[in-house]
Amino acid sequence: MDLDLRKLRYFVAVAEHLSFGRAAEALHIAQPVLSRQIRAFEAELKVQLFDRSSKGTSLTPAGTQLLADARPLLAQASALLRRVGVADTFTVGFMPGLIVTPAVRVLTSRHPGLRVEVLRTTWEDQVEVIHDGRVDVGYVRLPVPAAGLSIMPLFSEPRVAVVPATHRLAGKESVLDADLSGERRVQHTDPPGFRSVEEKLEHVAMHGGVAVLPLSTAVFYSRDDLVHVPIEDIAPNEVALAWASHRHTPLIAEFAEIVTEIARQV
Amino acid sequence: MDLDLRKLRYFVAVAEHLSFGRAAEALHIAQPVLSRQIRAFEAELKVQLFDRSSKGTSLTPAGTQLLADARPLLAQASALLRRVGVADTFTVGFMPGLIVTPAVRVLTSRHPGLRVEVLRTTWEDQVEVIHDGRVDVGYVRLPVPAAGLSIMPLFSEPRVAVVPATHRLAGKESVLDADLSGERRVQHTDPPGFRSVEEKLEHVAMHGGVAVLPLSTAVFYSRDDLVHVPIEDIAPNEVALAWASHRHTPLIAEFAEIVTEIARQV
DNA sequence: CCAGGTCCATACCTCCAGGGTATGACAGAC
DNA sequence: GTCTGTCATACCCTGGAGGTATGGACCTGG
Predict the structure, then answer these.
(1) Which residues of chain B have pLDDT under 50?
(2) For A116, phi and psi rounded to 5 degrees?
(3) HTH lysR-type domain location, by residue (chains A, B) (predicted)?
(4) Which of A36, B122, B149, B256 has the fewest Cβ atoms within 10 angstroms?
(5) For B5, which of A2, A44, A88 is closest by C-beta distance?
């Protein structure tokens, strides 16, 4: 009568791996158990979710439909648990260009049983995901509204101007803010369709203009047809680790410690 | 490790009844079982959800918080099940002023085990809730976008003009559309804050103007300081029962039959 | 002050769902 | 053919969710 979130999670695992064996391994259960659970799930829903063959497994249309529904539901359930202080997974948010892998790897190695996930954020939701519990901790770019957040500054990095390779500024060692006057600037306050970094860069490549991005972001999304030059006289972008200040879990503290440790080594 | 939706549903039941005994009765389980389940749930979450005393039960702050999170999650889970064709509950949507009780009562009497719920809709979401599975079937006011819907017309009713009791049109037997020219009309295309019927009527009562509503809506929301007069020369409002045409469940068919039967008797 | 009623909690039982292991059936690769 | 990778079947064991019977705490009326 009630939906079983465990079975739903198992289903998602199989749908993502398209293999009962590998999914079972990822879930840390035996393959026959997973087989039986999925069969039981299909029986409950009275819908076939997978086409099995001896070589591989594929989703049925109903399965594809369910997969789309399943992920947000599981995310919402996970966020609920996080809000009441139960850690079923530890989730790290990050803005485009920021590297979270080293810290995540250290955390997983210290807690082998813990599921650690990452969630890429945008300017719009980098703080929201912290408050609503979708992430435990987030790498954010300042400034952010400080209300209810604990913020631990990590480092600063210069901002660069991203322009087409054919642009008049393309060869320069560096530019001044004044050099950009008269250029159409693609900003994150633009309407939808220009919001993601990819979209901004696409617009710059196609229609000219200039995008001002933190260095790491420009490097991460570098394209052959675009180049970036440092802007000298603009405030550097500050990167920080942030979490909801009302949640003082040991895992958050430990992750913050790991991050500072890594930042110190660089 | 996974959230247990059954326990969450039990929790909501206790939170709503503020009594283990009555909640258990509503859930059709024995009271000690419910007690134990809630205790286990609290242990899993490591949070106390209720303050128990021999006279009554009350929510803790954590419980209040969880209750707010629990309802949308359960609704989303229920919608997911409905989309894959599993009926855990049968939910009927209805626009303000429409009476669903008789049909619902017949349905529950014929299916004693079935949970039947109702959801009040607005102009904005009366169709959306059908498509996304929040309701199985909805009483809607035409016109609606017909794509993907099966629509069964029920009846027509005149529209009335709702005006302050002191208005120049207040005493009339009926008015013509032309009589309303020059009046500020409060419409459902207005910005937020004027969307719900209550808000429209509040606006009419405070600032004058006129709201044009179907008769049953005006009657349902009647207030001392407002009166309504029929408009003669305006197209009547048609009320219909609608459901997603790709879902041909026996329950929907039966409900439609019940509704036609009731409509025939009136 | 005790009797009864109204709560929720505890104790104890049963049963089934979910976990495990061992093994089978089937298909493609060599 | 045999080998290998895939999913399914058979069997067992444990824990959790359901039940009933009963206890303990607290109010309330006589």
Answers:
(1) none
(2) -115, 130
(3) 3-60
(4) A36
(5) A2
| Adjacent-strand bridge partners of A231 | A175
What string of DSSP letters covers A51-63? EE-SS-EEE-HHH
CA distance A60 to A51: 6
pLDDT 10s digits, A169-226: 777 787 888 778 777 777 666 555 566 778 888 888 887 778 888 998 888 888 888 8
Alpha helices in B89-214 (DSSP H): 101-110, 128-131, 197-207
Residues 43-62 of A with CB under 7 A from strand D: 52, 54-57
**Residue B133 φ/ψ, nearest 5 degrees:** 90, 5
As a whole number of angstroms, the distance between CA A155 and CA A178 comes to: 26
For chain A, list the domains and their CATH numbers.
5-83 (1.10.10.10), 89-156+237-265 (3.40.190.10), 159-230 (3.40.190.10)
The 8-class DSSP code of residue B107 comes to H
Lowest mean pLDDT among A4-8, A43-47, A54-58, B74-78: A54-58
A192 touches chain B (CB under 8 A): no
How are beta strands B185-186 and B210-214 bridged, if at all?
Answer: parallel
Probe site for chain B from A84, A86, A89 (most B CB atoms < 10 A) = A84
Task: Note whether A80 contacts B44, CB cutoff 8 Å.
Answer: no
B51 CA – D29 C1', rounded, Å: 28
| Chain center to CA of A223 | 21
φ/ψ bin of A12: left (φ > 0), alpha (ψ from -120 to 50), beta (otherwise): alpha
Query: Are B133 and B76 in contact, with CB atoms under 8 Å apart?
Result: no
The gap from C-alpha A195 to its chain's centroid, in whole angstroms, comes to: 15
Q: Of chain A residues 129-168, which have a beta carbon within 7 Å of strand C?
A: none
